[in-house]
Design brief:
The complex is a heterodimer. Chain A is an alpha+beta fold. Chain A contains nine helices and eleven strands. Chain A starts with a helix and ends in a 29-residue tail after the last strand. In chain A, 50% of the residues lie in helices and 15% in strands. Chain B is rod-shaped, with a radius of gyration of 55 Å. Chain B has eight helices and ten strands. Among the domains of chain B are: 65 residues, no CATH class; 113 residues, Band 7 domain (Tetrahydropterin Synthase, Chain A), CATH 3.30.479.30. Chain B is of the alpha+beta class. In chain B, helix 3 crosses helix 5. The termini of chain B are far apart. The chains are: A alpha+beta, B alpha+beta.
Chain lengths: 378, 301
C-alpha cells in the first residue's frame, strides 16, 4: 500500500528516462532522424541541381539556341543567343540548349576547278610564285578543271563569303555527321557544292576567251547569279555577301595564251597608232582647207577692190584722155617709165646712119650681175 | 506541419522530374522518332518537335532518326555520251529521310547504309541519262541548246522514282553536277587542239590589226584629200564670185576701150620694171629721144 501511495505521490518522471533500458532504439531513432535530414538535404540539393543545371553561358565564337520540347525558342536571328551574359533555361526534358560554332562571316572555297598542288607546292607558289612543272595532261582523280562552251579546258576557282540569314534552317535543316550534333558544317558543305556547280555550269555557257579576258566580270556575275539561284532553290538559309572568282588557262598552254594576249595588245597598239594618224591627218587637212578658202576669199576681196579702184581711176582719167589722147599717153608713159628707169640697167643703142639694123649680143646670166652692166657685142 | 509540407512539395517535384525522365521523350526540330513497343514499331512516326509520352524501357523504346538534309556525293564515274565522248562525272545530292517508318526496317538508323543504296542508283541513273545526251547538251554558249539543268533534273527524277518504287523512305532534295571532266589522255588531245586554235587566233589577230589599221589610215587620207578638194572647189567658187563682181565694172571700161587698154599696158609695164631689168633703147624712145635733138657733134663721129 505504502508502495502504491509512494508511487502515487511521486512527481511524473521526465520523458527521456521513461525507458532507461531502451537506449538501442533511442540511437536508432536518432540515426533515422539524422539520415532523414540527410535525405531531405539531398532532395533539396537534387531539386536545386535540377533547376541550377538550367544556367548556361555562350562562348565568344558560338551561338546558342534553346529548344523547348524540341522546338527552337524564337525565330530567325532572335533565336540565336550570343555571349556576354548568363542565361537560364528549363532543364531537360523541357528545354535543351544547342550550341553552334558560328563565325560572323562564313566562307567556303570551291574544290572542283583547280589543278592539284601539294601543301608545300601551294605555299611555295604563294610565296615565290613558282609553280610545279605540269605534266602533259590532267589527271581527273586529282586535277580539277571546267569545260567551256567552246570545249576548251580552263581552271577556275571561287571563294564564297556569306552570312546565315535563317539560322534555324541552316542549323536544323542540314546534317554535318551522323551523331545528331548541330553545327554549320552541313550547310557549309551544301554551299560548297552549290559553288562548285555554279562554276561548272557557268563555264559550260561561256567561251574560254570570255572567261579569261573578254568578259571576266560577266563570268563572275553569272557564277554569282547561279549560286544565288541554287541557294534559293535548295533553301540553304544563307545570303551571299560576295563571290570572288579567279580563272586561268591550263599551265600547259600558258605560253600560247600569253602570245594571244600580246598579239591583242599589238593589234590595239596598231589601231591606236592608226587612229592618232587619222586625227592628225584630219586636223592638218582641215587647217589646209581653211587656209585655201581664206586665201581665195582674200583674193576675191583684193581683186574686187582693185577693180573698183581701177574703175574709179578710169572714170577720173577718161576726160583728160579724151581731151588730148596723145599728150595724155606721153605724160602717163613717162610718169610710169621714168621712176622705173632709175632702178633698171640701161643701154642706149644709137641708131645707125644707114638705117641698118645693128646686131646686139647679150650675155645673159640667170642672175644678172650686180655691179657691171651686161657686156654688149659690137 | 509546415516542415512536412515542404518535404512533401520537394518529394512531389522529384517524383515529377523522375516521371518526366521515365515517361516522356522529346522530339527535336531536326529529328523524327519511331517508338517501338517490344521492338515493334508503333503506328505513326513522331516527326514534329515536342514532348511525347512513352512507357519506360523495356516496354517501349525510342529510335531517333536525323530528319536533316544529308550531303552526299558519289565517287567519280566514267560515262559515255550519246556522241561517244567519255565524261568523268561527280554528282552531289542532298537527301533526307522522308518516311522513317519505311526507312527503319530497311536501314535501321544507318545513314551510310542508305547512302550505299543511293550511290548505286545514282550511278545507273546517270549512265542512262548521260548516254542519251550529246556533249553539246552539257557545254554550249547558246542557252537554248544547253541542257545542263534538264540533265540534272532527269537524273534526279529517275533516282527519286526508284526510291519511291522501293519505298526506301528517302527523298532527294537536290542533285547537281560537281565535276564534269575528260579522261586523262583526252585532255592532252584537247590541249593540242587548243594550242592550234590559239596559234590561228594569234595570226588572225595580227593580220586583222594590220588590215584594220591600214583601213583607218587610208580612210583618213581619202577624207583629207576630199576636204582639200572641197576647199579648192570652194576657193574656185569664191574667185568666180570675185570675177563676177569685177564684171559689173566692164561697162565702165567700155566707155573707152583704147584708154582701158592703154592703162592696162602702162600698169603691166610698171609691174615689169619693178624687177631689176636691163633695158636697151635707141634714141627715138622717149625720154631718150631728147638725145636726138641735143646739140652734139654727132656728125664728126
Amino acid at each position: 500500500m505504502s508502495h502504491e501511495h509512494e508511487h502515487q505521490h511521486e512527481p511524473p518522471p521526465a520523458a527521456a528516462p521513461v525507458m532507461p533500458d531502451d537506449t538501442g532504439s533511442q540511437a536508432l531513432a536518432e540515426a533515422l532522424r539524422s539520415s532523414f535530414t540527410i535525405v531531405k538535404i539531398a532532395m533539396v540539393l537534387m531539386v536545386l541541381a535540377f533547376f541550377g543545371s538550367g544556367f548556361f553561358t555562350v562562348g565568344p565564337s558560338e551561338k546558342a539556341i534553346i529548344l523547348r520540347f524540341g522546338k527552337p525558342v524564337g525565330e530567325g536571328q532572335k533565336a540565336l543567343l550570343s555571349s556576354g551574359r548568363l542565361y537560364w533555361s528549363y532543364p531537360y526534358p523541357i528545354d535543351q540548349v544547342v550550341k553552334i560554332p558560328i563565325a560572323e562571316i562564313q566562307s567556303v572555297d570551291s574544290t572542283m576547278g583547280w589543278y592539284f598542288m601539294t601543301r608545300e607546292q601551294e605555299i611555295a607558289y604563294k610565296t615565290t610564285g613558282v609553280e610545279p612543272t605540269p605534266g602533259p595532261s590532267l589527271n581527273p582523280a586529282v586535277d580539277g578543271y571546267a569545260i567551256t562552251a567552246d570545249r576548251n579546258i580552263i581552271h577556275t576557282r571561287a571563294t564564297l563569303n556569306y552570312h546565315i540569314a535563317d539560322p534555324i534552317q541552316a542549323v536544323f535543316g542540314f546534317s554535318a555527321d551522323t551523331n545528331f550534333t548541330y553545327s554549320l558544317a552541313g550547310v557549309s558543305n551544301a554551299a560548297q557544292n552549290v559553288l562548285n556547280n555554279a562554276l561548272l555550269y557557268t563555264a559550260a555557257r561561256f567561251n574560254v576567251d570570255d572567261i579569261l579576258t573578254r568578259n571576266v566580270a560577266g563570268f563572275q556575275d553569272a557564277v554569282l547569279r547561279r549560286v544565288s539561284d541554287l541557294i534559293e532553290q535548295e533553301q540553304l538559309g544563307i545570303v551571299v555577301d560576295n563571290c570572288a572568282v579567279r580563272s586561268a588557262a591550263p599551265r600547259q598552254l600558258r605560253d600560247v595564251f600569253t602570245q594571244v594576249t600580246t598579239a591583242r595588245e599589238n593589234r590595239n597598239k596598231l589601231l591606236n597608232d592608226a587612229h592618232s594618224y587619222e586625227s592628225e591627218v584630219m586636223i592638218q587637212s582641215g587647217a589646209q582647207a581653211t587656209s585655201i578658202t581664206n586665201a581665195a576669199a582674200a583674193n576675191r576681196a583684193r581683186y574686187v577692190e582693185s577693180i573698183t579702184a581701177e574703175a574709179k581711176r578710169f572714170n577720173d582719167l577718161l576726160p583728160k584722155y579724151e581731151s588730148n589722147p596723145n599728150l595724155f599717153a606721153q605724160q602717163t608713159f613717162l610718169q610710169a617709165v621714168g621712176p622705173a628707169l632709175t632702178n633698171a640697167e640701161k643701154w642706149i643703142q644709137p641708131i645707125t646712119e644707114n638705117g641698118k639694123k645693128r646686131e646686139v649680143r647679150l650675155m645673159l646670166n640667170r642672175e644678172p650681175p650686180q655691179s657691171k652692166p651686161a657686156p654688149a657685142g659690137p | 506541419m509546415k516542415r512536412n509540407l515542404s518535404i512533401i512539395l520537394i518529394s512531389a517535384v522529384l517524383v515529377v522530374i523522375f516521371a518526366l525522365l521515365l515517361f516522356v521523350f522529346q522530339v527535336r526540330q531536326s529529328e523524327v522518332v519511331i517508338l517501338t513497343t517490344f521492338e515493334k514499331p508503333t503506328a505513326q512516326p513522331y516527326d514534329r518537335p515536342g514532348a511525347y509520352f512513352k512507357w519506360p524501357w523495356p516496354i517501349q523504346k525510342v529510335h531517333k532518326f536525323d530528319q536533316r538534309i544529308q550531303n552526299f556525293e558519289d565517287r567519280f564515274t566514267q560515262t559515255l555520251t550519246a556522241d561517244n565522248n567519255n565524261l568523268i562525272v561527280t554528282i552531289y545530292t542532298g537527301w533526307k529521310i522522308s518516311d522513317a517508318k519505311s526507312f527503319y526496317p530497311k536501314f535501321q538508323s544507318s545513314v551510310p547504309a542508305a547512302q550505299r543504296i543511293l550511290e548505286g542508283m545514282l550511278r545507273s541513273a546517270q549512265n542512262a541519262v548521260i548516254g542519251k545526251h550529246n556533249l553539246s547538251d552539257f557545254v554550249n554558249a547558246d542557252p537554248k541548246e544547253l541542257k545542263f539543268d534538264a540533265i540534272e533534273d532527269e537524273i534526279k527524277q529517275i533516282v527519286q522514282s526508284e526510291l519511291s518504287t522501293n519505298d526506301y523512305g528517302i527523298r532527294l532534295e537536290f542533285l547537281g553536277f560537281k565535276r564534269i571532266e575528260l579522261p586523262e589522255n583526252v585532255t592532252q588531245t584537247v590541249f593540242d587542239r587548243m594550242k592550234n586554235e590559239r596559234q590561228k587566233l594569234i595570226s588572225k589577230t595580227e593580220n586583222e590589226g594590220k588590215a584594220e589599221a591600214q583601213k583607218i589610215a587610208s580612210a583618213a587620207d581619202r577624207q583629207a584629200a576630199e576636204t582639200i578638194a572641197n576647199a579648192d572647189a570652194a576657193a574656185t567658187r569664191i574667185r568666180g564670185e570675185g570675177e563676177a563682181a569685177a564684171a559689173k565694172f566692164l561697162p565702165v571700161f567700155q566707155q573707152n576701150p583704147a584708154l582701158a587698154n592703154y592703162l592696162l599696158r602702162i600698169d603691166a609695164l610698171k609691174q615689169s620694171l619693178n624687177q631689176r631689168a636691163t633695158l636697151i633703147f635707141d634714141e627715138r624712145t622717149p625720154p631718150f629721144d631728147l638725145f636726138l635733138n641735143f646739140p652734139t657733134n654727132t656728125s664728126s663721129r
